[in-house]
């Protein structure tokens, strides 16, 4: 068994193989996936931080300060749903 090593990204559960490697499309292969956990942890953390920052920014704008009662909130929701009809 020969081994070929390369780096790639998995997109929509698909791994694209480089075209410049000497294997045919009909060969049966064994696939081992190695994931760098440090990179994934950093990416997940930064995404979480970005989302929390965006939520904090929206919250600071008091977009719904005029909605004080449950009735006002429900009326606003109904207007949003009816907007597309």
What does this structure look like?
This protein has 85 residues and is mainly alpha-helical. It has one domain (10-80). It is built from two helices and two strands, in the order ββαα. The protein has helices spanning 37-60, 70-82; strands at residues 10-11, 14-15. It has a two-stranded antiparallel sheet with strand order 1-2. β1 and β2 (14-15) form a beta hairpin. The longest helix is centred in the middle third of the chain and has 24 residues, at 37-60.
Question: How are the SSEs ordered, and which strands pair?
Answer:
Elements: E1 10-11, E2 14-15, H1 37-60, H2 70-82
Antiparallel strand pairs: 1-2
In quaternary terms, these chains amount to single chain
Spatial shape: elongated
Low-confidence stretches: none
Structural class: mainly alpha
Spatially, the strands of the biggest sheet line up as 1-2
Number of strands: 2
Q: Order of SSEs, N→C?
A: EEHH
Please estimate the helix content: 40-55%
Query: How many individual helices?
Result: 2
Spatial separation of the terminal alpha carbons: 62 Å
Strand content: under 5%
- How many domains make up the 3D coordinates? 1
What is the radius of gyration computed over CA atoms, rounded to a whole number of angstroms? 25 Å
Quick check: average pLDDT?
Answer: 81
What kind of sheet is the major sheet?
2 strands, antiparallel
């Amino acid at each position: 068994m020969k081994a070929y090593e390369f780096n790639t990204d998995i997109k929509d559960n698909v791994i694209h193989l480089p075209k410049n490697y000497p294997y045919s499309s009909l060969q049966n292969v064994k696939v081992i996936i190695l994931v760098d956990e440090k990179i994934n942890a950093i990416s997940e953390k930064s995404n979480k931080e970005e989302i929390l920052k965006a939520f904090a920014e929206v919250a600071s704008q008091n977009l719904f300060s005029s909605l004080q009662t449950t009735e006002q909130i429900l009326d606003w929701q109904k207007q949003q749903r009816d907007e597309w009809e």
